[in-house]
Specification:
Strand content: 15-25%
Number of helices: 30
């Protein structure tokens, strides 16, 4: 390639490409029409590769006839070029790779080895980018660790710490992960270690991957200055807002970001520390509410207000954010600087605006936080999918599948053609099981950032549900784009109008496009093709469309993240996804267009759709799920007239049997039988759910289910009859256009609020217990000891409190009959506290009569009842209540607390419960020895605070703020169980694993047996220093197969 290359208008050393993973030699010329058509497409591939952090460069080898043509053509390219005058080099390259026609593309490795001498078509395939190495995996992160490295392993909302030996490799690390998370090795999807998007690459040696993880955490112990809005300024803000308002909110906890004016070409954002400090770097983050962020920046500083600014690190251009959402990124200087004023100057951005949230890192000696790995397994324990399976297609399995398909076609042959065609739904669902496609999808997902959002959100629901909410947020806001009419591909204008359709070309057909819409540009008059692709791999690259494309790609995303997913076809022209959540033991509706989760009635109640058939397809089953989406099933049946219900049942049963048999043929017999049993149990539970829906036509409806369609152009929604079922639903839909339903039904409070509420709950309960004991004549120290001794298990109980909400219950049936509202239970332990909050009113005339009561049920008996909030007010009001007992009886494990409401007799009343929220915390009993240890420590601390002059209640509060650490009560063992094994236990577990493998057991079976034995090893006392690790052979657990 010679010593010099062109980059833009400058010559650069060819060695600037050192370390690049793949280099493309692009032979092309300005005079060649196919080249002029191909170059813009190649540029899109190149830009996507850069955006995904891929190590890929292109060198243009020109075939132009003169220098002016070369410079004009090269000016449209963002990559390198061989200098036009160097004819010798161009000829050598053409001869070396036998270039006989253009455009032509040759791919080389970073070391110069030939990868593909005819890659022109290959680079245009959706899977090409997934074959490129990532920059993060090739980068030199400095010396690799030789000593054990502490790692934080996060899984399912839990955190574990392990010690990782770099030279032991990935297999033993996965075994360690298995030992703390119980996620089988073949189901583990690992993220983190400095990789922002996508899983870790296990082809990278583990020591190098650990070095990247350590580098990513460098500076994580540094203190953030937390500069207030009053000491932040900027060269401009988008709408001239003051600091702290609108587009001038650049704090890390801002709901938006600082955004300068577009015409401000030398924009800067400045932070005043108030005094000269040692500054180690800055921390930056993307805009919080949109896919806009700064990708490159420079930093300068001054020691005094009004002083001259000096560039940091010789005006070095720092790399900044790469995706959205992204955890705050620390940018460390080569050495700390003394500064009062710190100025950040964006030099490149993503999303069209230089959106920035930022703060200053102050120098200090704090230790860095250990690197982290986020582990995703199969979201359902009953899902046998193995992400690591290396087995290729079995010819006998394929033959059996063809036989099953022939039998299915025979069964369907005498049914209506429309039902025969429904087997295509299974073929679509089968694509989502492709491991290559799943890997492509994972490359785009910022799993660690989504996991952090779940942890910061303090959600009181299952991790699988909370994580899915964040996936929907990312997909809706930052990944996929709704397209009413495509942007003009000629002038870039958005002002286009669809004028018709045409047939797809061969390439478009290869990606499942059945039709192509044609849009006319109102600016330049040119036309743009908009293929309606149906290939999920192509859609990962295309990232635009309407509900069909959205649901198709989103279902693949769900499967790649380990969720069992169904693709639901609504015959009134809509599609969406269902995901199975173990924490709820049921399927949840998930509409990515609307950012809606578990709002199945939104189509009927909100959009006003007249549903007919909603059929769901997964890899191993097919179900008519219409009854989940309606409370007017008898009315729906009158519209299902295309064929008999009996024909539909026969067709779905045949398709379902085929799906189960086909999927089961690829599994070991035991696993196939296990899976079939799981599907049968789920089917029975689902039928019970449908039965309950049929009997509760007037049941509660969520607020989010009363909103019309929010996705798409308003006129288009109105034409389809989906803008809203009534005027209120339409108004809400217009107000929330393109925002989705998450803002209507977002669960939980902000993280700080959750912690504050729990702390206040705990304090209130302990103070009440203390006062009660004092009133009964107990000594203050003894009362404090008894009250606070319950705090440790109570704190754990509140952390694990299960929250549920009932919304929008209306009833005007003025009778004295009590009606079921909701229930809590069976309780997992003794009741610690049931917190209730209601917003409601009684719209009756004269006296209010609406009430809510709680009943304690044990077995088949009702033991007692208690009024919850008194009588409902005329005006909308709120009520709160905390229950620790019902009519003096404390609910215990296995009991149920049922809530009922009554409207009241007399006529003219309507009770409206806008929402009722329940938070139920259960706790186990503290054992006597450990309880006494805590009580003794509490007495000592209470006496110390009392001696300082604090009153009794203040002394209790002080002890509660810093509770004694004397021992760990049994109720906290659930927390302690999640702590990592000791270093000695880990060593014994590793030794045992090696011994089992050496004995001939496969690694998976050895890891499973090691884990069973490790549970006893962890509880066993540590071996004396220098002693050989225990072999743990005191028991023989049952063997487990590779699929366990």
């Amino acid at each position: 390639l010679g010593p010099k290359l062109l980059y833009g208008k400058e010559e650069v050393p060819t060695l600037s490409l050192a370390g690049v993973g793949v280099v493309g030699l692009y032979f092309s010329a300005h005079w060649c029409p196919p080249c002029k058509a191909y170059t813009p497409q190649l540029r899109k591939v190149y830009e996507r590769a850069k955006a995904k952090g891929k190590s890929f460069e292109i060198i243009f080898v020109s075939g132009d006839r003169d220098d002016d043509s070369f410079r004009t053509y090269f000016g449209t390219m963002p990559w390198y070029a061989i200098p036009f005058a160097d004819e010798v080099r161009k000829k050598v390259l053409k001869d070396t790779f036998h270039i006989t026609g253009i455009p032509s593309l040759v791919l080389l490795s970073g070391t110069g080895n030939l990868l593909d001498k005819s890659a022109r078509a290959k680079v245009m395939t959706p899977s090409f980018l997934s074959t490129l190495p990532r920059i993060v995996d090739l980068k030199d992160w400095g010396p690799v660790p030789s000593e054990p490295v502490s790692l934080v392993v996060r899984h399912n909302g839990q955190e574990h710490e392990i010690e990782c030996e770099p030279d032991e490799g990935w297999e033993l690390l996965r075994m360690q992960i298995f030992s703390v998370t119980e996620v089988p090795e073949e189901q583990q999807r690992l993220f983190g270690l400095g990789v922002v998007c996508g899983p870790v690459d296990e082809s990278v040696p583990l020591p190098k991957a650990l070095a990247a993880g350590l580098a990513a955490q460098r500076g994580s112990g540094l203190r953030i200055a937390d500069v207030p809005d009053s000491r932040r300024s900027a060269s401009s803000s988008f709408k001239d807002e003051a600091s702290g308002a609108g587009h001038h909110r650049g704090r890390l906890d801002s709901e938006q970001a600082w955004v300068p004016k577009a015409e401000d070409k030398a924009a800067w954002y400045q932070l005043d520390l108030g005094a000269v400090s040692e500054v180690a770097g800055v921390v930056v983050a993307p805009r919080a509410d949109a896919g806009q962020f700064v990708t490159k920046l420079r930093v300068s500083f001054a020691e005094a207000e009004g002083g001259s600014f000096a560039p940091v690190d010789g005006a070095r251009e720092f790399e900044a954010c790469v995706t959205m959402p992204q955890q705050p990124l620390r940018i460390l200087f080569a050495s700390a600087v003394r500064a009062r004023m710190v100025r950040i100057e964006p030099t490149a951005c993503h999303g069209g605006h230089r959106a920035l949230r930022a703060d200053v890192l102050l120098a200090g000696a704090e230790a860095d936080v250990p690197p982290e790995i986020v582990v995703l397994g199969n979201a359902s324990k009953e899902d046998p999918f193995e992400v690591r399976s290396a087995a290729g297609p079995d010819p006998s399995t394929r033959m059996m599948e063809e036989q099953h398909l022939a039998m299915l076609q025979a069964k369907l042959s005498n049914l209506p053609p429309r039902l025969q065609h429904e087997v295509r739904g299974l073929e679509g669902a089968k694509k989502y099981e492709d491991r290559g496609l799943q890997r492509q999808a994972l490359d785009d997902i910022p799993v660690c950032a989504l996991d952090r959002l779940v942890r910061e959100g303090g959600a009181s629901e299952g991790y699988d549900v909370a994580f899915m909410r964040k996936v929907l947020l990312w997909y809706k806001k930052f990944f996929f784009q709704w397209t009413n009419s495509p942007r003009c591909e000629h002038c870039g204008a958005a002002d286009t109008k669809t004028v018709g359709t045409t047939a797809p070309n061969q390439e478009e057909k290869s990606y499942g496009a059945g039709t192509v819409e044609v849009a006319q540009c109102n600016m330049c008059g040119m036309q743009t093709r908009f293929p309606r692709y149906n290939d999920p791999g192509k859609l990962l690259e295309w990232r635009q469309g309407r509900c069909g494309e959205w649901a198709n790609c989103f279902t693949l995303v769900c499967r790649s993240l380990g969720y069992e997913a169904r693709h639901v076809h609504d015959w009134t022209d809509h599609v969406w996804t269902e995901v199975y959540c173990d924490s709820l033991e049921r399927w949840l509706h998930a509409d990515s267009c609307e950012q809606a989760l578990d709002t199945p009635l939104v189509y009927e109640r909100g959009w006003g759709k007249k549903l007919t058939y909603c059929l769901a397809f997964a890899r191993d089953h097919a179900v008519d799920v219409t009854q989940r989406y309606t409370r007017k099933y008898e009315e729906v049946l009158t519209r299902r007239s295309q064929f008999s219900e009996q024909d539909l049942k026969r067709a779905m049963a045949a398709i379902n049997d085929f799906a189960i048999d086909r999927a089961g043929a690829a599994l070991p017999q035991a696993a196939a039988e296990q899976r079939r049993g799981a599907l049968e149990r789920r089917s029975a539970r689902e039928e019970e759910e449908f039965k309950a829906n049929r009997s509760t036509a007037a049941g509660p409806v969520q607020a989010a289910e009363q909103v019309g369609r929010t996705s798409g152009d308003a006129q288009w929604r109105e034409q389809r009859g989906e803008l809203g079922a009534d005027a209120d639903a339409k108004a809400k839909a217009l107000q929330l256009s393109e925002q989705g339903l998450a803002c209507v039904s977002s669960p939980g409070a902000a993280p700080a609020d959750v912690a504050r509420v729990r702390a206040e709950q705990l304090k209130e309960l302990v103070q009440a217990k203390f006062q009660h004991l004092c009133d009964s004549g107990k000594d203050q120290q003894e009362a404090a000891a008894d009250a606070i001794a319950e705090a440790v298990p109570l704190r754990a109980a509140l952390e694990k409190a299960v929250t549920s909400t009932v919304r929008d219950v209306r009833n005007s049936n003025s009778t004295e009959d009590w009606k079921a509202l909701t229930s809590v239970g069976p309780l997992a332990g003794d009741l610690a506290v049931l917190s209730m909050a209601v917003r409601w009113h009684d719209q009756g005339f004269g006296n209010q009569k609406g009430r809510v009561r709680a009943l304690l049920r044990r077995g088949g008996s009702t033991l007692g009842e208690v009024d919850c909030f008194g009588i409902a007010p005329h005006e909308v009001g709120e009520g709160r209540r905390q229950l620790r007992d019902v009519a003096g009886i404390r609910p215990s494990k296995g009991d149920t607390i049922a809530l009922e409401y009554v409207v009241g007799g007399g006529g003219g009343h309507q009770l409206h419960i806008e929402h009722l929220t329940l938070s139920c915390a259960t706790v186990q009993t503290v054992s006597a020895p450990q309880g006494e240890e805590i009580r003794a420590a509490v007495k000592r601390k209470f006496a110390e605070h009392a001696a300082k002059g604090l009153g009794p209640r203040e002394a209790v509060a002080a002890v509660l703020a810093d509770p004694p650490k004397a021992g760990t009560p049994p109720a906290a063992q659930a927390v302690a169980a999640s702590k990592p094994p000791t270093a000695d236990a880990q060593a014994r577990m590793k030794a045992r694993f090696a011994e089992l493998v050496a004995s001939g057991l496969p690694p998976n079976e050895a890891a499973a047996r090691m884990l069973e034995e490790g549970k006893q090893l962890q509880a066993a006392p540590a071996a004396p220093s220098g002693a050989a690790p225990s072999q743990g052979a005191a028991f023989s657990p049952p063997a487990r197969g590779p699929s366990a």
